[in-house]
UniProtKB/TrEMBL annotation:
InterPro entries xrefs: Oaf (IPR026315), Oaf_C (IPR053897), OAF_N (IPR053894)
Keyword line: Signal
Domain Out at first C-terminal per the UniProt entry, residue ranges: 204-267
One Pfam family recorded for the sequence: OAF_C
Domain Out at first protein BRICHOS-like: 20-167
Signal peptide: 1-19
Name the UniProt record assigns to this protein: Out at first protein
Family: Belongs to the OAF family.
Amino acid sequence: MQFCVNFIFFYAIIQPINLQLLINVKNQGGDVMQENIIANVSEDTVILDFLRLDGVYVSQLVDFTNEVEAMKVVIPAEEELGQSGHQTLCFLTHAAQADFIAPDAMAKLRQKNPGTVRVAEEDKGWRQTTATAWAGRATRLLSPAAAKHCAAARERVYLRAADLTRWAPRPGMEQSSYSSEVTPFPTNALSPDATDGKPAIGPCVAENDAAKECICHLEVCVNWYPCGLKYCKGKPQGGLSYRCGIKTCHRCYRYHYYVRRRDACLSYT
């Protein structure tokens, strides 16, 4: 039987192990790039990372135990714009587990033809996230794996305060422990209208003063990832359906977040 996208699952004869796959993926522009996928069964995490053609490095971690998704983005400076060095950002969101294959299932994945260039079967569209706070020490409380993943971002780890109510407290912790460790953005950064006598903060793309605060936006597309399992029916004489392949998806993310200075927004154009 031809399994979907030439991957094979071994469910009965192989125990879960950690897995690393290097996948050739065609993006929406027709360019081929490589994605690296690591499934860690012992930590219950999956990491997918790749280097975009514009030099931006993207690394997406999903911590299934703690239901945390951490999108890390490393943006190189553009010297022609007067920038220097690079910038690391990390965005924490509540993980919708239905969008991902769990590590134990991922670890049973085997690639039949490593050289094949793959295209996602389903387009999941855009997911927009408007961050409302700096995560601070809450990152470590929410997910040790995400804290390690985002360590290089330092104070540039962002989340939505609304997501804090969706994460169940870890053993021995109160729900309020999360909220007490985050730092909310200024009130006028969270409203399209003037707040507390201060004008609303506009988008960085419309701000000409490099020293002025503004709302930065960043777009990231994951062109191919295993987003579900496929099932085949048993023989006509009877029999249960069985897992026989994977469904693959494409999804784009648009992040909005506050910066104290426009020159801290390397992706404002």
